[in-house]
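Consider the tokenized backbone below.
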């Protein structure tokens, strides 16, 4: 230590009554930690639509739009945390400065097949809606996702709907680039504890960002049948006594693939070979 020949820096608090050689250094590096976090988002969009063609079953309509979005995530630690000039801290090191931009385009086409002049019993109305959305991310990749919807009415008071759609969600900037791991208290049960060691532990779980994350994808299916007796002609329908009554049944299914989520700590301990890279490390006592 400068000015103290033969003495070396002690990182722990100096408890001696005299000659506290490292007291000034301890005071110099003891500091309150803080972070300044900021997110920014700017969006520009233009969209429009309307009928483009008249057919016997009805009007063909088209709609579409363009979007541009700019996002940033800035997390700045205090100088002592950035330079690791802290005896003990929970966010040592530099913060995060991440940015992305997204260009998007979408279009929707509504096509009537049955209806109005082309309408018969058991075939009162049939309509198809086709949609497509394209997103181009500067930090992930591009994606094109469709949606197909069908509306069929065998009678005016009975309708069937069906939809198939695909969705795409990119990982957030924090999930990709967060500079400091988030800390959580957790409890695990060790499925293979060494002899004489406890099977239950309280642990500190660090959840860090992962720049290799891939986007989430979802595939959705939806079907509905809805009956509104007498709604088409409530004054003259035989069902006018049930006017206002509605019965429906819905069914849907969503398949989520490549879901982004922290892996539970107990899953890691129970399946160490499934997660290579030293995710589970034991000390000599187990």
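A designed sequence for it:
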């Amino acid at each position: 230590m400068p000015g103290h020949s033969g003495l070396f820096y002690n990182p722990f608090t100096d408890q001696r009554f005299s000659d506290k050689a490292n007291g000034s250094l301890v005071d110099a590096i003891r500091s309150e930690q803080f972070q300044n976090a900021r997110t920014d988002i700017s969006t520009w969009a233009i969209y429009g639509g309307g009928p483009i063609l008249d057919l016997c079953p009805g009007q063909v309509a088209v709609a579409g739009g363009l979007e541009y979005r700019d996002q940033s995530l800035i997390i700045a630690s205090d100088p002592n945390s950035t330079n690791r000039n802290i005896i003990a801290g929970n966010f040592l090191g530099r913060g995060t400065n991440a940015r992305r931009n997204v260009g998007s385009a979408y279009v929707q086409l509504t096509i009537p097949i049955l209806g109005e002049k082309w309408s018969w019993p058991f075939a009162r109305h049939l309509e198809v809606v086709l949609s497509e959305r394209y997103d181009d991310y500067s930090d992930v990749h591009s994606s094109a996702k469709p949606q197909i919807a069908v509306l069929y009415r065998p009678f005016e008071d009975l309708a069937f709907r069906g939809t198939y759609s695909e969705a795409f969600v990119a990982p957030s900037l924090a999930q990709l680039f967060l500079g400091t791991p988030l800390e959580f208290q957790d409890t695990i049960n060790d499925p293979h504890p060494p002899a004489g060691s406890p099977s239950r532990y309280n642990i500190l779980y660090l959840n860090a960002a992962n720049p290799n994350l891939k986007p989430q994808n979802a595939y959705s299916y939806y079907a509905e049948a809805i009956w509104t007796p007498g709604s088409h002609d409530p004054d003259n329908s035989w069902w006018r006594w049930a006017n206002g009554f509605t019965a429906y049944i819905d069914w849907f299914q969503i398949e989520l693939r490549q879901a982004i989520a922290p892996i539970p700590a107990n899953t890691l301990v129970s399946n160490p070979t499934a997660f290579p890279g030293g995710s589970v490390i034991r000390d000599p006592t187990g």
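The longest strand covers residues 35-55.
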